[in-house]
Design a protein that fits this description.
Layout: H1 2-17, H2 20-29, H3 31-42, H4 52-83, H5 102-127, H6 147-186
Helix pairs in contact: 2-4, 3-4, 3-6, 4-5, 5-6
Length: about 190
Amino acid sequence: MAAGLEKACHRCISKIASNACFIFGLLAFLALPLSMTFMGMKFLEDCPVQPLIPLYLLVGGVIGSLKVTLLLYDSTKMRQLLSKSVVIDDDDDDEYPWRQNAHKYYIHLTLSLFLFLWFILGNYWVFSVYLPNFIPPFHQPQDYCDKTLYIFAVGVLIISHTVLFLLIFCSCCIYCFSRQRFSSEED
C-alpha cells in the first residue's frame, strides 16, 4: 500500500514538474530571491539597529536563487525526458525511482531546511526591531534602519508567510482528497 502511494506521488510530482506553466512559474518566482540578493547587497551597511536584516536578505536571496535554479534544472531535465518518451513504466523493478537521484533529493532537502531555518531567523531579526527609526536620530546615530530595506524585508516575510500557508493548506487538501479517494476505492 505505501509503495503504491509513493509511486503515485512520484508520478504526480513528475507531471507537475514537467509542466511548462510550472517552469514559467519558477522563472517568475526567481525574481524574489534575486531582488532579495540585490537589496541585501545594496543596503548592507544601512541598518545599524539590526545589521542582520540585510544579511538575511543577502544570504536568503543567494540560497533561494540556488534552490529555484536547481528546481528549474530538474524540471527542464524531466521535461526533456518526457519529450523523448522516456517514462518510468509500471513494470519497472525499482519501486522507488527517486533513489536513482538520491543525491539531488538530499541537496534539495538540505537547501529547504536551511531556507526554513533562515526564514525563522529572519522573522526574529526583522520583527525584533519592528518599526525602527527610518532617519538617524542626532543623539543615537546608530539607532535606525533604511526605510526601503526594512519595508522590503517585511514584504518578503509577508510573501513567505502567504506561500507557506498556501503550501500547507494545499498539501492538506490533497492529502484529505487522496485519503477519501483511496478509502472509497477499497470499499
